[in-house]
Amino acid sequence: MTGPGATLARPHVWRPGDATPPLLLLHGTGADEHALVPLGADLAPGAPLLSPRGTVLEGAMARFFRRLGEGVFDEEDLRVRTDELAAFVAAAAGEYGIEAGTLVAVGFSNGANIASSLLARHPDLLAGAVLIAAMVPYRDGLGEVDLAGKRVAIVNGDADPTIAPQQTTRLAGQLRGAGAQVSVLGHPGGHTVPDSRLAELRAVVAATDRTIPDRGKAHRP
Questions:
Q1: CA-wise closest residue to 207 among 179, 181, 176, 178
Q2: pTM over the 0.90 mark
Q3: What residues does each domain of the chain span?
Q4: CATH fold of 12-215, please?
């Protein structure tokens, strides 16, 4: 994959590892490439971690794409930034020896939303995703995309002031309509990563690893 973003110049963390699956960590607004590394290490101990920084600034806060207002995305910019991120991920995969199609995206808030966009626009990059505090990325849906065999967990809080329950329902429906295996893991908290769901998220990540072609054979007794 070539084009803007197809270099390793974007600030990022790369932490090699021997376990699987490798994780693509996508931070929320105002954080950086270091923010989700502890979570990634918790969800997949010993796995390789790739964590890029968003390249859009909202004031002094890093984001992965622009928004027009609270919960209102600049969808044109989202498409452009998604393609740039995909080019970076492809370049990083080649540089660091990440097997194509094995990455599991773990995104929080703004990072979760661009992870959904990656699934829609570049599904071959990812084996699945953990979407924490996630919204619907595109008003008109994900488009004609085949997500069969991909596992996705949506983790939204019942008390999240920025995400209405309908957002969770719509996103889950769009992903299922594209063929993904979707788990909706609600929690009573707000716009946060819930400790109460970490064990289930570890299980989702491990199950995603077993669905990767040829990888599953190694898990059979």
A1: 181
A2: yes
A3: 12-215
A4: Rossmann fold (3.40.50)
